[in-house]
Design brief:
This protein is an all-alpha fold. The chain is built from eleven helices and no strands. Keywords: Oxidoreductase, PQQ biosynthesis.
Length: 253
């Protein structure tokens, strides 16, 4: 096959999945520490605070994407992603579920929602993802979302590990992850088919693969930031959350 000839649909999907197998953030040592029960309460809190910034930015990313979509069918399919996070009259949404996790680990949900303690590197990485979706082609934007192909495994491992190793973990605290096990498959099925249908040249396949790689870098860099600030060597940058801040009860420190 020459470089200008696109791979078959099967081969291209395998290429995308290989990116996840090699680069998805389930391979990061922070997740081994978290799921294995090795995180201190403050390390768990730091993860909750910083991951919230990603969670709260996802609907804005999706809204930016939809603002560029002229096809009403695509907009109809995509808007459920915003509802899954922001909630509806019948669905509290992922953001509220994440704030319930924040309270369960001893954090004031209002403090977490303020995003005041987010690490600079987390903010830069997540903002870069929102900007990527706003500025790149629709194909690249959808391809970047395909990290959800690999999410069910990490959610299942997280539920098992947190329930086994942490006192705060119960069905209420972990409801975000349980709901994503139900919500993500529909998004993945649509997004993957959409990318496979439209990446019909070698150039477009390369663009999609690079977009997915970029997204894995966004996720990985967030964990690198957590590791450097709160695990080893533990250098918390100015303005980022300090243990003892933003607690529901200061005595919990």
């Amino acid at each position: 096959m020459t470089p200008d000839v696109p791979a078959s649909r099967v081969a291209f999907e395998a290429r995308l999945r290989q990116i996840g197998a090699e680069r998805y953030h389930d391979l990061h040592p922070f997740h081994d520490l978290l799921h294995g029960g090795g995180c201190t309460p403050d390390q768990v809190r730091a993860w909750v605070i910083n991951r919230y910034y990603y969670q709260h930015s996802i609907p804005m990313k999706d809204a930016a994407f939809m603002s560029r979509v002229e096809d009403p069918d695509l907009r109809r399919q995509w808007r459920s992603r915003i509802e899954d996070h922001d909630g509806t009259d019948t669905n509290e949404g992922g953001i509220r579920r994440w704030l319930r996790l924040a309270r369960a680990v001893g954090l004031d949900p209002d403090y977490v929602a303020s995003c005041e303690g987010v690490l600079p590197a987390t903010r830069f990485a997540v903002d870069a993802y929102v900007r990527f979706v706003r500025e790149k082609t629709l194909l690249e934007a959808v391809a970047a979302s395909l990290t959800e192909l690999f999410a069910p495994k990490i959610h299942a491992n997280r539920i098992e590990g947190l329930l086994k190793n942490y006192e705060f973990a119960d069905d209420s605290a972990l409801s975000y992850f349980r709901n994503r096990l139900k919500e993500a498959p529909k998004d993945v099925a649509f997004g993957l088919a959409w990318v496979l249908d439209r990446a019909d040249t070698a150039e477009k396949q390369d663009q999609a693969a690079k977009a997915l790689t970029f997204k894995t870098d966004v996720l990985w860099s967030q964990l690198d930031a957590l590791w450097g600030a709160y695990v080893q060597p533990g250098r918390i940058p100015p303005g980022a959350w300090q243990p003892g801040q933003g607690l529901v009860d200061a005595r919990a420190a």
